[in-house]
Every structure is written in structure tokens, then in C-alpha cells.
Amino acid sequence: MKKIFKISYLIILLLAGIYQANASEKVELLKTDWSFKGLFGKFDRGSLQRGYQVYTEVCSSCHSMKYVSYRNLFEPGGPEFTEDQAKAIAASFEVTDGPNEDGEMFIRPAKLSDKFVMPFANIKAAQAANGGAYPPDMSVLAKARSGGVDYIYSVLLGYEDPPNGITLEDGVYYNKYMYGNNIKMSEPLSDGLVEYSDGTIASKEQMAKDVTTFLMWAAEPHLEARHKMGFKAILYLIILTILVYFSMKKIWSRIESEV
Amino acid sequence: MSEKKPERREFLFTASYAVGAVGVGAVVWPLVDQMNPDASVKALASTEVDVSSIQTGKAITVLWRGKPVFIKRRTQEEIAEAKAVKMEDLKDPEKDEDRAKDPEWLVMIGVCTHLGCVPLNDKGDYNGWFCPCHGSHYDTSGRIRKGPAPLNMEVPKYKFINSNTIKIG
Amino acid sequence: MSDHEYVPKSKFGKWFNDRLPLLSLASHLTDYPTPKNLNYWWTFGGILTFCLITQIVTGLTLAMHYIAHADLAFESVEHIMRDVNYGWLIRYIHANGASMFFLAVYIHIFRSLFYGSYKSPREIIWIIGIMIYLLMMAAAFMGYVLPWGQMSFWGATVITNLFSAIPLVGEGIVNWLWGGYSVDNPTLTRFFTLHYLIPFLILGLVVLHIWALHIPGNNNPIGIDIKKPSKDTVPFHPYIVIKDGFALLMFIIIFAFFVFYSPNILGHADNYIEANPMVTPAHIVPEWYLLPFYAILRSVPDKLMGVIAMLSAILILAALPWLDTSKIRSAVFRPLYKQFYWILVADVLILGYVGAMPAEGLYLLIARVATAYYFIHFLMILPILGFKEKTIPLPLSITEPVLGGFPNSAIAKKKESLN
Description:
The complex is a heterotrimer.
Chain A: H1 2-22, H2 45-59, H3 83-91, E1 94-97, E2 106-109, H4 123-128, H5 148-157, E3 173-174, E4 182-183, H6 204-219, H7 223-252
Antiparallel strand pairs in A: 1-2, 3-4
Helix pairs in contact in A: 2-6, 5-6
Chain B: H1 4-33, H2 39-43, E1 47-50, E2 59-64, E3 67-73, H3 76-84, H4 96-99, E4 105-109, E5 120-121, E6 127-131, E7 136-139, E8 144-146, E9 158-162, E10 165-168
Antiparallel strand pairs in B: 1-10, 2-3, 3-4, 5-6, 6-7, 7-8, 9-10
Chain C: H1 11-19, H2 22-31, E1 33-35, H3 44-63, H4 73-82, H5 87-115, H6 123-145, H7 150-161, H8 170-178, H9 185-214, E2 233-235, H10 236-261, H11 291-299, H12 303-318, H13 320-323, H14 335-355, H15 361-388, H16 400-403, H17 409-417
Antiparallel strand pairs in C: 1-2
């Protein structure tokens, strides 16, 4: 038994170390309740719809979300707009298609099957329009940052004046939680910036939470299905394990002496 | 060993096997289903076509599920011709009104039912389509009249969702 | 190989078996006499077979949708995650399955180290095992490149660059590996091909591994030779099948927790950023299961020596049956070796930890000490220990200690139960 404790202790030390390494370097991130965390986590539909509104009105002019399709907006597990609402949203964007019969490319309204239209044609165009910095695509951003949603939430709310002695270049801002503390995006959120169609008060914290929730869904659209399946799978496995355990005992009881 | 013991033991094993089999089935299904059309393919399973610019007597070809679809706005002569054909003259008897609910619009998968080539519009002996590969002639309703093709060109599921737009599939 | 000829019951069975003795093989595997005192550390062979099959099946189905081109790879993985039916599930099983595969292989290896399973007459089984382990690392390394994220790209760059350490031909070899002047599309497509191939090579080696095992039969916790079949053995089916099944289910439960509730915790956030040859991530780190070797590599200041040290660390294991001079197999009866064993375990865990840290300051110092100790363990401690150690007398059979007919049976039983 002593060995098991020794190994367990070492493993715990190791895991603690790994956890440390993965967590944000110095500052502790801001925390809030995320409805999708935990074994039974689900997305809050209202939050997702509000988050979509924030993304569209505040972020999408610079940040693409090229792996999400308009049809995802009405599919189960997401913001769950109605199909007509999603169609209308899609139609409000323009897409280049073609070539047509004359061999030319043409513009048409987006359909449900199209991916989210990008604000810039390519990365270089995005950089050129943003002082050399590329506003990252947001399709999997929530998984692409150590600290995940807590990190994104913190950065959105973490703008402050640089501490004494630090001067920043033009176009660079100070952020308490950003890795390296320098960020080329000016503070994107401010109280009342968006008028929520469901009447929720659009405080900075509310918008940060809603848009981050939306980003989590964009990165993991099947999160709810995954949690649901996980519960069923593990429950099933526990039942089967118990049955197999007793089968094992029964079988091994056949031999007279066990060592 | 009493009679009861073997029974209980057997039940335990049977139960284990049964529960295990459920698990195996649950594992196999996703591995099979992943080969089914995925969400992005299914999203393109139907397509909406704006037909407002098609003039009478003209046809367009659109791509639907990887295949060409002919949409023809027929003239009164073409409609009359299609309706006048006797069922006995057809290799694959089918009434025109069963093929084109709104007689002005003919929607068909533009694939010859012989060996799959794409027939040419406004060609052939029956004022319809002609397949250059092996010489099948289709009439103004897209029905096979002469040549090796066994069946009429297929009419897919479609409907007008408004006066300008057909949704195919 | 067969103790008694197996005669199939049906006429068709006999006809078929005369031409291809599959039924005899099945009979051999079912009846195969296995020591009855095997503990749960022996279940990991079966678990590893499950892992290999899982990776092959999920890999095959992923390969139906994945596109091995630098411009499309990342996107195709997102397509799998979002659009392919159950694509997210298959992908997460495959990614976490790799980690579970390595977890199991490390436990399996450390079982062998503790109980002396590598010793005569099982040296070839052990060496085949090392070969399987090397192929696993190659497959895992190349598999990680396929999503074409930042870690994929930069991990590939760092590790392939190691070959430039070879004098004279180094740079030529690197360009040959890359198919170009840097990691790029040609590298990706060939890594995909090889990643697809290697698991089947592993499968072949596993067959040889098990075949070689079945000649002497399994080792056991007290490390003594046993006759098979005898009262010391049980037929593989149903005794070992059900026990392996139970252990496998426990393993799958842990696996399921990762897949369904923390599918990304063992990975790197940076790999969700598309590969960018112009920007290097702040910390390039391999997956956890390669960390100890990464630590050894970085602890040596010279590039070539670092590579040699890393390779030696693995290859030295192949020499283990001859480095360990003790005639006694199981650590149960080698009290001094047992202490050194646990120190080695701690050493490897420490190497893993510092492998994830930046290679500077205290971390670098620890890495160097731990690396030196690793080699000292195999090259100095083991050979000397074999001669100097005072071992506990072995029982004469497996059942004997239980029946108390042996002076040290009480000690032996107590020691066993502690494992």
C-alpha cells in the first residue's frame, strides 16, 4: 500500500506542476460562473444570442469566424435562433460566388450553408488595416488561449492605465491580463455599447460574459451533446464494470486457493 | 452445489454479455454513421434557384447534389405537344401533368437514363433533348422517345417557395 | 507449441483447420496456462492491445475526412469537429487515445522493470517491446503534426532540426526529411503516409511480442519459474479474460472522463492556432509523454551530444537484460533494488516535469542532475547491485507461500500483498 501512496503523491505533484505551467503566468484571472462548465454544463441560449449580437456589432468588423456556418445559428446546441431568423441573418451578408455563365465572379446574399463572411479578404489585408497586427480568427479562440474563457473574459475587462514607468508605443494599450501586457486592440467594450434586443442591461461585464460564452460555443458547438453522451457513457460503463466485477469474482471462486 | 447457485451464476454472465453487447453496438454506430453525408453536405442537399430571369422557351442548368438539373420555361406549343402524346407511344409511359405540375415549368435531372451523359437542349427529333453519346431522343416533357435509354429523365422533388424561386430537394 | 493436438468438433472445422490451423490457434490462446498470482499490473498488455485497435479504428475513420495538405489540414480537422457525424467524438477519442496509449505503455514498462520481466529467457520480448515503443513515439510525433497547428509545425521543426547535428550529412538528411528547405507541405503529406503505416508495423511487432511471450509463458509477481500447466496456472479463458476485461473497463472509464469532460486538458492551446512559419510560440513543448526525453535532450548544451543522450536514454533500455546482473527477477525479493526502482520512477517524473519548463535556471540544473542519475541507474547501479545485493530467499512455488510450508512464506506473502 505504501507504494501506491508514494506514486499517488508523485502524480499529484506532477499534475499540480502541469496545472501551474498551463495556468496564466503571474496574474490570477477574473472568474465568473460559466453555465457550460462542469459535468452537466449547458449553454444559456439567451447569453448565446446576446453574445452573437455583441460579436456581430462589435467584433466582426475585424475578427473573422470562418469555420462557423450560418446554419449553425439555428442548429440544436447553439443560440438556437429559428431557421427563418438564421436565414435572415445570413442574407444580410454578401458572399462572392461564381464564376457565372459569363465566367465572372458575382456577389450574392449569403445562404445558411455558407460560412461566416470574413471582414478581410486574407490575413495580410487584415494586418494592413490594423497597424500590422492580425485580429485573430475567433472560430476556436476559446480553445486557442491558455486559460480559455477565463482568459478572454479577463482581457476584455482588463484594460487599465499602464503602471508608473511604462510608456507604450502608439496604437499599443496596456492590459492587466494579456500575456505580455501589451495589446494592439483598443478597449472594445464599454457600458451600453450594444442595445440588447431582449432588454438585458448591456454592462461591460454582461457583454464580456455573453460574447465569451458565444465564443465558447463557436469553438465547441457540440459541447452539450458531448456532456450528455459522457454522462450516459460513464453511467453505462459503471454498470457494466460492476457486472463484470461480480462475474470475475464468481469465476475466480472456482479455484480452491487464491494467492 | 444447490440448484439456485448455477442459475444465479448464469444470470450474471448473461447479464454481463447483454450489457456488453449494448456497449459494442453503441460504439459501432458512430463509426458507421460518420460515413453518412455530413452536415455541410446535407446543408447543400437542397438548393434554391431564382427563375425570374428565365424567358419563355429558355432553359437553364443548375448544379444540385453534384448533378445538372434542367429548368425549362416551356412555350404553349411545347406544352401542347407534350400533352398530345399517347401513352402507347411511350417506352416509359408517364403523363405530362405528372411530370410538370405547373405545365409552364419543367424541372428534370439532366442525366440520360441510359449511361449517364448530359443530353443537349433543343436538339433531337422530338423538339426536346438529344443525348449525343448513344442517340437517345427526349420529347418536350423529357420523356424517352427513341434510342437506348430505358426511362424518362428523372423529375426531382421540387416546389415553388414563391413565384420567383424553386427549391430543389 | 501445442501441448496436445486440438481436434475441431465439426467436420467443416476439421477440414478448415487442416488447411489453416486457426482453430488450433484459438484453442491454444484459450487454454494458454497463465500464472494464477498475476496482479493488476499484468492487465496492461491487454489494455495496450485495446488502445492499438482503438487508435487504428478511429484513425481510419478520421482519415476518411482529413486532408493532408498544408492549406487544408487545419480546416479539415475543424470540418471533422463540426460537420462530420460524431466527428468530434472520433477526433477526441483519437487524440486522448494517444495519451492513454502512452499511459498504459509506461505502466507496462515499469511493471517489467519492477518484476524483472526483461530478464532471461524473455530478452527478445523486451527488445521487441522497445521497438514497439520507438515506433509509438514516431507515430505519435507525426500524428501530432497533422492538424497543422502552431505546435504541430514548430514541434516538427525543432525535432527534425535535430538531425542536422549529424556531422557532414546532417543538413542533407534534414532537407531530405523535409522534402524542402523547411517544414512545409511535402513534410506534412509524407508524415501522414508514415503515420498511417506505422500502426500496422506495430501490430506486426505485437504479434511477435505475444508469440515470443508464449514460449516461456508469463512472468509473475514473485518472479519464479513455474511449470505450465500446473496447479500454479489457470487457463487464459475465462480467468484472465475476465480479469483483463475488468481492468480494461476501469481504464476506459478514465479514458471516458478525458474524452467527454476534459478533452483538451492534455493538449496545448497553441495547437488551435493555425501554423505560422513567421511566428514561433513562446514555449515549444511536446506532448506530455515525450517530456522526459525532451528534458534529457535539452540538458546537454551541445546539440549533437544532446541528441545522442536522448537516443541513448531509450536504447540503453535494450541493454537492460545484460546491465542488470541480478539472478533474482522480482523486486519483491530485492529490497535494495526496490528502493532504487522508486528513485528511478521519481527521476523520470521529475524529468517529465522539467521537460515542460523553460530550459534555464533551476529547471535546467534539475534536468541535468536527473539526466545524469538516469544513466547512473542503468550503467552503474544496476550492474553493481546484482553482485552486492542481499536478496530474500525465493519461495519454491506460487501456492507454497500460502500453504505456509516455507520459512519465508509470511514475508513473501506480506511483500506481495503490498504490491
